[in-house]
## 1
Amino acid sequence: MHKPSSGFRGFTENWQADLKAGFVVSLVALPISIALALASGAPAIAGLISAVIGGILVAHLGGSFVTITGPGNGLAVVTLGAITTLGGGDMLAGYYMALGAIVVSGGLLFLLGTVRLGVLADLFPTSAVQGMLAAIGIIILAKQSHVMIGTLSPDSSEPIPLLFEFFASLKGLISADIEIIKVAVMGLGSLIFLILFSKIRLGWMHAVPAPLWVVVIAVGIQMVGTKINGQSFFPEVYLVNIPADWMSSWRLPDFSGIKEGSFWTAAITLTFIASIESLLSIKGMDRLDPFKRKSNVNKDLRALGIATAVSGLLGGLSVVTVIARSSVNVSNGAKTRAANFFHGILILIFILFLRSLLTQIPLPALAAILVFTGYKLLNPSQFSRIAEIGMEQLFLFFFTLFATLIYGLIVGIALGMLVTLVVQFVMTRSGMDILRYLSRPNTLLYEEEDQKFILNINYFSNFLNYPRLKSKLDSVPPTSTLIADFSNSSFVDHTVMEHLAGYIELFEQKGGSLELVGLDMSAASATHPLGVQSKANKSGSLLGGLRRDSGKARLSTKQEKLSEFSVMNGMDFTAWPTPNWDVKLDQFNYFKYRRVDYTTNLLAHHSRKLFAIEVSSHSGEFIMKDSQQLACVVWEPQGVALPKFVLDRERIFERLAHFAGSKDILTGQIKFDQRFALKGSNVKAIRSFFTKECTDFLMRNPSFHMESNGIALLIFHKERVASVQEFKLMVNFALDWAEQMSTPSE
Amino acid sequence: MDFKATPVEYKKIATAMGFSPMAKANLAEVYRIAQKCGADMFVFHIGQWSDKCEATYNSFLKELSIPKSGITFVSKDGDPKVELLSLCAENKIDLLALGALTREKMFKVFNVSIARDVCRKADVSLLLLTNSTVEGRVCERIVVNGSDHPKTPDTLATAVWLSSKLGSRELYVVDELNEKSLVHPDDDKSQLKSTRKRKQIEREQHGRIAKLLSCCSVSKELEIKEQHVFGKPGYTIAHYAKVKRADLLIVNSPDTKLGLFDRIFKHDLEYILSDLPTNLLIVHTTKILRHA
């Protein structure tokens, strides 16, 4: 696959792939757009307008490649707030005033892009942003849970009372009348379906994204039920409402509130959240782009600004870059911006010609989708991961979460940033220094020799002075070698470490390298690689008790056992391998669309080029996010001609094998062929690799999943964290096989 | 800009005599420098000169084996900031050497504030010594400013002259370039453009520096290395000197006399003064510039 050309040529070469991807995305975007409009308190058509304008305009004006733009999750909450406040209770009036704020925020976004303030998104501390996003998830969840069971207007308005009220309503359902019960069953049933969807093992089901299934089934029930009943199966008020005269009843947004402070608060909040969500999504997508193209973030912001303003004028919501739909776009083979365009056009066609179908969608189904989205934003599985990085990060996460729930988005994130700074003062004991050096330049970048750059960082590096570091990092071509030297810094915070991990990946992908040196401040493997690196830790930091591994390398029981095991087998054990990724995971199809978050417990047998490691990765984002832990072995067998193949017992690799253009292969050993599914393209090479000795060996041992890319093997057992026993089993298997391969067969 | 660069050859070096813990080491250091440069040495003391002071001073000279006749000693009472500079003017001092402390506390350190006053009002080169020792260390590595500025040719020539006198082996010429002259790389295409432009700028500057150096008489033991760096002027060269562990940093004198405004909104020399990476020499050149 070569990189798609830009411009018109790119379009003509790739339009089929883009059309297909755009089509799938439009099917997903349709219900989501309507749902988000409802979550915002706006008419259903508003969400659709935003998706259409987003797709059509941003595809032409934008600076990224595979992103999808339309109504956003985070903005639903802000827009709802704007509509409620500006309208003083009158949702319709509020809607038109909010449109005014949306148009203004579009202008502000455009300005942000012009002044190159796209870098501002990097200014926010990671844990605080995650806390804010989680809070957004809870807010969406709290409100929509009511719609899901049939209460269109609950009493409370704040998220926490809403949650309590939900459970009360749930109990009240038992005595409710049949209409409500039908609605509630629809909603709850949809939610259960969404939750269980990932567990369903039928490959064909997964070709269609879950939200679409929900909508299709819900519409089906409504239509069939209506036919049988004679009248609408679900009460009208519980169906999506897109009035037939939606086009002709358009009127200009209401700018009368422009003198009021509340108008500007709304506009600024909209701009703020829109830019954060978009920038995070654009950067996230840069990593998921199979061609690793770097997006022009500021150009995108300008495009989003224009699209938002136009959308607002036409009655639609703000346009942002959405990572969930973008990741669907990429996994369906999108190549250029045309996919975004097609997604917009197709939604327009749906509205124009299939409006009556759209009005058959029951609201509870959409609410269930939103509840699920909210839950995915909250993402409880990230709690343990954050805790592992450092307890202070967990504290910051929850602090920002609750601050956002109680005080709203802007105050929430502002408090989060403030507390992050305070925590840094305390943890690193260099409070005064931080204040003094904050406004100073602190980076030095020079080219030592051709294509080799040295970046030296002075004083300290945290989220506040990160923009300086970032501009220096960006000015280095990722094809060259860069050494970032932190020995002159007293500490580096978690947000910066995360950003650096991203740059390390970028440099790797482009053929260069970024190496971090001077970070051995705390004891070698005491802290998580992405945790706060601080010289203060050495003397036993104030919060030593809070950190899980304070100052000394303390391994868990599992790690100690693994360490012993590795010694016995002549391997090196590293509990927290540095982010320099000795083990190249993305060479395998399995990791093609997965982003590796971090790796732990590396057992390395250097002479045999055999590595066992635990990988934490995820694919997709937000609603489509699927995080997992995996214990695997990566091994380059020496002196053997290794063909490309995939070996499996369960159907886990079916989807992937499709990429390799492979077919089922029979080795000729009957028992083996019965138990295993072997796929590949070069039949001859595979058959000569799977000799009788080989298949006998494989049958004698517990079965593992295997992928070979011609150079190395990826071997694993289950897609979850492995126990010590399972780890040992897997490593022994690989070592035995290596042994067996190196001994010549008789 | 077309004129010959003239190094400031220091003929009269003065130091201020204080009684801080570093006094003896500073005295030793300045004496050594004066010897190597073949310059006359002056010691100024501002304030009351008591017998106790005399005794301590004499014991210093004795311990350091400095003949009293080798030094012209002047003591004057009054406000240090005023008197020191008037003494320098009276005696036609080329170079004023002061012992400074690198920043350790949040609040101003006495000698650095003196330095600012000197830069603000005086027309004398200033040497701030941060890590003098009694035994002395050879000044191996010097970092000098090579940016495109009218004062640079003289400063560069002075650096070359000084390195031959002090026996230095490496001279790093650091050319601080304005980051704004680069194209901001937004995406892959502009990244290439940016790299090309960068290389072009570096080539041009290299030509300029080579021309300047050809006018100086460079000794054979001296290895000259050139480094072009994009970054904030003043700060960048200080950070570079720190990274390269230079023994001496030589810079141009400031264009504006440093006032309160310059201290609050830090720029150029202020960055260096507020966090001295190593010994600092601010070269003052009084040459009138002629445009060819």
Note: Residues 521-526, 536-553 of chain A have pLDDT under 50 and may be disordered.
## 2
Amino acid sequence: MATVAERLATVWEPPRSVYSTLASVDHKVIGKRYLATAFVFLIAGGLEAAVIRAQLTHSNEHLLSPEAYNQLFTMHGLTMIFWYAFPILSGFSNYFFPLMIGSRDMAYPRMNAFSYWCFLFSGVFLYTGYAVGLGPDRGWFAYAPLTERLYAPGINMDFYTLALIFLTISGTVGSINFIVTAFKLRAPGMSLGRLPLFMYGTLTASFSIIFALPSLSVACVFLYLDRKFGTHFFDPVGGGSAILWQHLFWIFGHPWVYIVVLPALSFVSMIVPTFARRPIVGYTWNVLGVVMTGVIGFGVWAHHMFATGLSPMAMSFFSAGSMTVVIPSAISIFVWLATIWQGRVVLTTSMLFALGFIFLFVIGGVSGVVTAATPFDWTITDTYFVVAHIHYVLVGINLFPVIAAFYYWLPKMTGRMLSERLGKWNFWVMFLSFNLGFFPMHISGLLGMPRRIFTYPAGVGWDTVNLITSIGSYIFAIGVLLFVINFFWSLFNGPPAGDNPWDASSLEWATSSPPPPYNFEVIPTIGSRDPLWEERLGMGRRSSLRRGPTLAGSGKETLQTSTLDGEPVAILRMPEDSIWPFIVSLALLAAFYGLVTSVWGLALAGGVLTLVGVHGWLWPSRTAVEA
Amino acid sequence: MAAVSAEHASRSSERISGIPIDEFPLGVGGTASTAWWGMAFFIITEATLFAYLFFSYYYVGSRHSQWPPHGVPEMRLAVVNTIILVLSSVPMWLADRAVRRGRPALFAPLLGAVLLMGVAFLIIEATEWSRQSFTPATNAYSSLFYTITGFHFAHVTLGLLMIVELLCRALVKRIEVRRPLAVRNVAAYWHFVGVVWVVLFLTIYISPRV
């Protein structure tokens, strides 16, 4: 009789073919695709930034026309905020959710594949516009009425609205998947109080997405209709309101800031305890801080609109609301500091990036909370001070934890260690050049330099700061390149990682590196928050990682447990690979091309094909009928 | 069910938390199932979408001295539609119950009734649109009116497509009796579409009258 591993492998590992590539529903495959695609978008956005900085290095530079510059900064913002910052976090979550909770896949594996294809195709859709010179060109938050047909006649901004609507499909589907997976598929014994902190960041972000993304969809549908069909949502002459766009956009937009940072904070909450060699201090406080931040994120949107003439009452409310965010953020910071204080720190590259992140988080937090004060906000609105703030937030609180997470988890994914020596260079180059390049933006902002100007006259005192910013950002790009080099070096020369190279405490380190398609030979039973550290912490062996149910029957199966306590409830039959998610997202892509070019036949054909695809997807297979 | 127990037999020596593995069902039904949770969150995010549509209506309205600009909308057809859509939840509920109680004979006729009522709703809605004196491009009110009712129209259509899918399965494969979850999810979605219409009715037809 075949061993358990062999039996599981025959069930979970399809033979390699073109079909299985397009039809794969394995969360690890999808997670890696998310990471790779999002990283490509990071590089694309970075190259755009490099051209922007070349244009701004000197006064009166005419490397780019104003029109080309408009497209460039809009594409840079869109790419980084929507197609890099969130999907890269989804990549980690996709890969590690099932591994951290001892499951064999996500709750909806085919939806997971669909979510990835929609992400990829929406990005392809956006970049086709840019490739043919019709990229969005009115800034990433696209304020009406500047985006209305009268002032933006090309189809550039139609690429904007439709690409974002396409992307919201991906985000919504993915978030529902994360929530249900975390609540239903945990290993027996993993009550919510034993959930790794990693999960709470993504869970909070997923709940935020459920409530925030519809606002972006509504705003984009309105704008699309205004532009293509002459409706008057944002047109004051026709009785509409340009401010309505700002409300809808920021009701979505501010929660989005937390959506792209909370999962990253929770990466750090996994990395810091590992390298402080002790369990996190204040687990419950950390969870509450993360969830609180997500909730408060919905009550602060109008602080982006202090300059639009809100009533004093509204401004006071949103100003106070925005300042409250400091409290849960500070809780998170003190939780990490206390853990470091109480522990014996090992300064790996991953830990360095995590520490660098804490430093940048404080600067980004301080430059954020001062802008919550209305009078100060009036002074610096639309200046480079705000640009500095957003970069400290997005690079500091998203990119630094992401690179930390790569150094930490890539050995699990590839089975190879990255070079620590090159890694330290990588950190110091990125950390120093980031501050060299982006801190002076605060100063250019305070000197009055407005954002989004394609050039500036000589003699206003902005040359030196801009030159320093450009130099810093180019060195920063070299820093990112060092990471890419380190990654490829590790693939070929990295020492084997082994199951648990960092001697960490959470479940993903209990399986091999890289994990087999079925993740764990045995569905583990969990008895504590740190299942791999139990003996060291003197609590005896409470979890069972090597013995337990294998579910090595004839089909793909995993375990469903109860929502709060993680008591076993049922055995779940997981779906086989399916080509339908790919077909349906391709049909959607065709429909969106039809909508943007006003070729209604194509839009209709894409729509019909989408419905046919969904029918094929849902039609029960023979095995499902028997079940 | 025979196939299931044969599979269980091959690993029946295994235990989960001390309980023999064959004592666990293959999947759970009802509100504990992952399918139900997925539909619940889909409905939540859809409900939020309509909340933002209604927010837009009230926000733009609050900036006008005369709202709606064309006067209070005529509501005879809308009242008829409200009655049809709310009543259509009754056969939907009965169909769901029939499946759960193992009475498959009633399932297709009840679902057919929902389908007819839904189609009637769409026809009346289209009639109402054709009778308006304004188009979506007339002003902000007309844009909101057509977009909000249009979004709801699309959601009713989606619900009807789900019902057609269920009917196909019931007639072609005769399987819904053993898969009550799909019926339950479609029923939930259909009730949701009805609730949204009630809020829409209150917003567009009643709020200008108070």
Note: DSSP finds 19 helices and two strands in chain A.
## 3
Amino acid sequence: MSWEPVIGLEIHVQLKTQTKMFCSCELSFGDPPNTHTCPVCLGLPGSLPVANEAAIRFGLKIGLGLGCELAPRSIFHRKNYFYPDLPKGYQISQYDEPLCRGGRLGDVRIHRVHLEDDAAKLVHVGASGRIHGADSSVVDFNRGGTPLVEIVTEPDIRSAERAREWLILLRETMRQLEVSDVNMEEGSLRCDANVSVRRAGESELGTKTELKNMNSFRFVERGIKAEVARQVALLEAGQPVVQETLHFDPQSGSLTSLRSKEEAHDYRYFPEPDLVPVAVTPEMVEAVRAELPELPAERAARYETELALSADSARALAFRPELGRYFEAVLERADGAPAQTVANWVAGELATRLGDADPAQSKVAPDALARLVAMVGEKAVTAGAARQVLDRLVADGGDPAAIVEAEGLGAVGGGDELAGAVRAAIEANPDAAEKVRGGKAQAIGPIIGHVMRETRGAADAGEVTRLVREQLGV
Amino acid sequence: MSDLLALSAAQLAERIRARELSREEVWDTYRERAAADDLNAFLWVAADAPDTGDGPLGGVPFAAKDLFCVRGVPSQAGSRILEGYRPPYTATAVEKIVAAGAPLLGKTNQDEFAMGSSNENSGYGPVLNPWDRTRVPGGSSGGSAAAVAAGQVPWAIGTDTGGSVRQPAALSGIVGLKPTYGAVSRYGMIAFASSLDQAGPLTRDVTDAALLFSVMTGRDPCDATSLEHPEAIRLPSAQDLQGVRLGVPDDVESAAGIEPGVLEAFRATVARAQELGAEVDTCSLPHARHGIAAYYVIAPAEASSNLARYDGVRYGLRVDGDDGLLAMYTRTRHEGFGAEVRRRIMLGTYALSSGYYEAYYGRAQRVRTKIADDFRAAFERFDFVVTPTSPGVAFPLGAKTDDPLAMYLNDFFTVPMPLAGIPAISIPNGLSEGLPTGFQIAGPAFSENRILDAAYALEQAIGFDTAAVHA
């Protein structure tokens, strides 16, 4: 009997505005503790929040990027609970009137997107460095008040692997929107997952649990996988899944309960009286829309449908917009070369050589790469020789034809020259030749290798194979 | 010296400007009186006069209710949980007054976190009414009211959430103005109920109220709910009420606990208003009588959240132990907050809790909207709505401390205005049984200039002697 996981994600994205959500303290990471604070983000008596316009713009940009409906009017609520990292005793968040609703990224629907402020950071002093067994805990308020956007998906994800892949798509989307550093290790991207399972084919949702704060893409996948397995085991043993909040420990792979449904906080949400409603004008939306780049999901879809690229190539180019732009520049100059071939050269060969560097900043001009690809297409150089030319282009730049000429990398044509090289190779490998004649086709390797060595890779491997067979009479 | 005490703040400013009085003489006189305070009106008195330059307030000292944050000065909101707390910044309202030339003389006693109508809820002991020291001065800005009434300071500021400027002004025989919500920045005012709190002046006369308010008002980038006043605030000059239409709510005479002497004084002033040319008619505010009920849901709900920050973690009182975080929170808040504050936190927490929100908070907000609609409708027929400020005169200390509901009814006439966000003033309206009563004038949002003019005209006609208790 098969089970279907049903997964929804809640993602917190720290916005990289200049200043905090409700005060003018600078955002920081890794600075000495409590050096970016003021009466507002410390929650001192009498202080009042003022919403950061840039954060609202970033929120709208995310909303547009995810295809959401932007609310012309949204309001902030107070979410009340006591904790030392929460200096006001409440978080300022959005509740039933969020900034954005609906939307879609890839094949996952977005439920809502809202703005809120981040809590401060608790530092547990003591050998363990964790809350349990700490001698004491101290608070660093530098992070407190950082603008956050919370993105809530519909429960549209059906496997842990897909959750991880989708989260990577979301990260790339946020990165290309230039709204966040989206670094899971540093906490600028955080993910909770709501997980339930049901029998395949059922439409009712099972009881869900919430997995908290998995701080890497791998842990998201592993955590969800472990939770799905746990729920399936329970259900198969005839036991119910209990609604609760769980913590995944990546070290041990275990899941521990943080709190049950009964222990869930009553946050006593009510409209934040210190703030006025966020009024979004059509002008604001248009200004934000004008800044919107083509996002990875759209770009990948365009590459797949318009250029017939493979899904992998499309993603590789779309997830790194600089690669995508470079690819399009080469394609434009490649004079009818197949898009997939150009994609392979850009996303494969070139990207491998350049690492994270932007190809537009490299010595390889799109023109040069386009010519090189064309030369391969015309069989003027072999693929192997072209790789050597690319090495030279990456190192020194220049014109591929000139490099081919200077290095003698031109394809060794058919005719006598190549036939002579093949003859010599057969003579040098009598054993292999004998085996091929005896019907062992794969024994041809050493002979071809010999030819390629002698011609320094300039021979066309297909042509060489044909000639070897011809001369051996097979 | 008695000459100097007989002068209003505006007159003092005038004399200082004309060099007939020195700033030092004014400061020293009031500094001495404030330091000798035997009403428990002051919680802190400045040692030296700060240099405040030449502004329109010309060196006339003022006092601020304890809940206004002042950099380096104890700002405790009348609560033990903030005992000795000295903020690192100054409230906008205080900054503006100081920038206009008035030095801060002291911080005044108040009901804890502005929760109270008698000043008996202060963590630092009750304030005595200078008219009768066995009686309360009203609250929650009781220290400011008593200090002005007793001539310990020329003028003061307080805050009004449900009547906390107007009611103590009335009970102490002075003027108190609650401005339009948003007219004065709340930045640096230790919050009680954010959607209701509004700072205002407590002064000897209407002119002083106008002068002080004129420098307090203005949009503040630190308070998102603040607004620029559409009119510059003028000093009042009206001599009559020709053409002014006054509405008297039809339930004034039957209001719970209204004292005959208060009613008599009110009727007399309404009659004077007619003599001055006003047209008077009864008006209906059908939902205003639910104001107390709505107020005592909304204000505690907001307070329960606003006061969550007093948790012993960062500042103020912490009652430590070795039994964990929750126990520290509980002990700190139990010992730091007084009974009335704890009561309101519990009420507010309940009103906001899941399953009760709609029945209490949601419903109270709808009542609030109805009350605002009532006023809007009334102001189509009338320029102002007038009532007694408080149903009774100053009551004896302890008279209502065991009966919170009786205490809450003191706010019957003052609560509807903050719920509607509109301005109102209380002016001295003669005596009843030898104690001051107040006359309240409420107008539409941002009608302060017109309210001040009407109040000024009535003030001249009433002729109340504010210097009566300065001895």
Note: The mean pLDDT of chain B is 95.
## 4
Amino acid sequence: MNDFSLWDILRNLLLALRWTVVLSLIAFVGGGLVGGALLFVRLRAGTVLERFIGGYVALFQGTPLLMQLFLAYFGIALFGVDVSAWTAAAVALTLYTSAYLTEIWRGCVASIPKGQWEASSSLALTFGEQLRHVVLPQAVKIATAPTVGFLVQVIKGTALASVIGFVELTKAGSMISNATFRPFEVFSCVALLYFGLCFPVSLYAKYLERKTYGRRA
Amino acid sequence: MEFDFGAVLVDWRLLARGIAWTIGLTAIATLIGMVVGVACAWARSSGPLWLKGIVGAYVELIRNTPFIVQLFFIFFGLPAAGLKLTPETASIIAMVLNLGAYATEIIRAGIEATPKGQIEAAVSLALNKVQVFMRVVLPPALKKVWPAMVSQIIIVMLGSAVCSQISVEDLSYAANLIQSRNFRAFEAFIIATLTYLALSIGLRKLLNWAGPKFFFGR
């Protein structure tokens, strides 16, 4: 039987780590785009669409990400499209991220005093101009810290893609652990790699939070 | 494309048993996890320095790794180190550790918001350290952070779907079992998902009611 050194394990896990990073980035960027679009619609539209998007957010926040992944995996297949684990994971995580981000950003926009909207509209700015020159510059400042903080959730969320067979860090860990019979070392390494990926992001989010709100007394 | 939800609902007994497991796991994990959270929050805000360090490391380690990896480490990793656990025990331990870490941070935020004057007033009434914490600091702290706590408990409940991966027979396990029998995967997961949604709405209502009633008064 082959013997695996700790370095063999770690090297293979590091190779799988890049797929975790890629999937996180796809979900984060895709989710940001969809979330931004939803935010725009939400600010612009009447109560019906607003409610609809509210329901969308509640649906994704009130159900397990695992079920969302399964639904994407089996749901897209219903349209006769051959889905890979890649597509399903990317779609599910993008939608999941968009629901959370649009809600976070909505809160940030809502925290901008109403007078700012009123003042800018009294200056005859259009809705787009109001957003671009008055509201968003202020909202973005508040939104940065929680958005970066949510990136940690996205990275951790990609671990669930292993369940539908997407080979990222967690799946690679399971496979290597099955091959080496050394689950303790393997899953310790997997956990440490996630920690190495997420902890700096968490620290950065905390730093941004302090920068935005100042240190609490 | 046609749907056959009846084929899934026929197995309602399986679903019901799954729901019972999901609720049971969540209930146990919530109760123990809150105790862990309160204890660690106390340690982190007024314990000795070495304890603060340990609790801080625990909180950061849990918060920056995925729940599924924590679960796999406990269920697959620990037996190799000599600690064998049933899937159910492993799940409860993982959920408790997970909720405990988040609860620590949440409750600590509430504790830190306690005005100093209240503690001084309590001390001047000759309450001892434990009494001050349990009767003066903790109840208003819990009240302040209860909405965040409720959200976190719901996140843990939804996260418990992952426990099906180590063959705990919870709701998502039931959905998986049903779809493996009748190949109605989409219908089975739709029903499971909607059930989770209903559970999280119900749990939020329950906790919003139970919090003021049992933990911190009106």
Note: The mean pLDDT of chain B is 93.
